[in-house]
Design a protein that fits this description.
eight-stranded mixed β-sheet, alpha/beta, Carbamate kinase, about 260 residues, two-stranded antiparallel sheet
Length: about 260
């Protein structure tokens, strides 16, 4: 889709370490920045929200990513689904308050999985939202699975599948860190097919509870997103980085599939 950008607001950025606590100051700052950038630059936008201190906690408790495995799993689907929507609704509310035309999209209502992989996707509503310049806001969610009963799709995985059909020109993963770091704590400027095998050896999971695999998972999915032609960047959510990235400045880590 022409002039479409995906932006993911990472859980480490929009939540605090205290369980189920949103970082309202940061969310409001980013919401205002996004509204201003859309007015000034002019682009269609789809946003994804991470979970941070919200649904990762209940997803770990109920082992939801493993499927329906015991008598508590059914309750787990309900609890994790509810937790996953909470931080998303907070972000949507703040985007609306900032002036944006945001609308929450429940991934479990449009995705169906089988053995942990996507089997079907009903994408037409999202296309219509974008047609009218609304801003769909998706999130990592519990997805019903025809084989396992249920699974977890991270926001990155959802972005990967949506990118296949919507063809965004740019995908920006805004994180609580400035990019992907090497063993010397220096930012890796670019990850591609040639250096990925070397770099993935020192990628690690999140320093918080993260049932989807932390930075290692983010980079793998970013490589998949890039397959569909988008320019993908992992950046920090500070110092006007979002604006800089939209301008094409070389910040954070660029992900390419070539």
């Amino acid at each position: 889709m022409k002039n479409l950008i995906f932006i993911k607001l990472g859980g480490s950025l929009i939540t605090k370490r205290k369980p189920y606590t949103a970082n309202l100051t940061k969310i409001r700052e980013i919401a205002r920045e996004i509204f201003w950038l859309r007015k000034k630059v002019g682009f269609k936008l789809l946003i994804g929200t991470g979970q941070g201190s919200f649904a990762h906690l209940s997803a770990k408790k109920y082992q939801t990513a493993q499927g329906i495995i015991n008598r508590n799993s059914i309750r787990g689907i309900s609890v994790v689904s509810d937790d996953a929507s909470k931080i998303n609704k907070i972000v949507v509310r703040e985007l609306i308050m900032a002036g944006e035309k945001a609308v929450s999209i429940q991934p479990s209502a449009i995705f169906l999985a089988k053995e942990g992989k996507m089997e079907s996707l009903f994408i037409e509503p999202i296309k219509i939202y974008l047609k009218y310049d609304l801003v769909p806001v998706v999130y990592g969610d519990v997805i019903m699975d025809k084989k396992k009963g249920c699974t977890i799709f991270s926001t990155e995985k959802i972005f990967t599948h949506l990118a296949r059909y919507l063809k965004p020109t740019k995908i920006i993963l805004v994180s609580g860190v400035e990019g992907v770091y090497d063993l010397n704590q220096k930012i890796v400027p670019e990850i591609n097919n040639e250096n990925f095998e070397k770099i993935k050896k020192f990628l690690k999971g999140s320093d918080k509870i993260d049932v989807t695999g932390g930075m290692a998972h983010k980079v793998r999915e970013a490589m998949e997103m890039a397959k569909w032609g988008a320019k993908v960047n992992i950046i920090g959510g500070i110092n006007g980085n979002l604006k800089k990235c939209l301008r094409g400045e070389e910040i954070g880590t660029k992900i390419e599939y070539s």
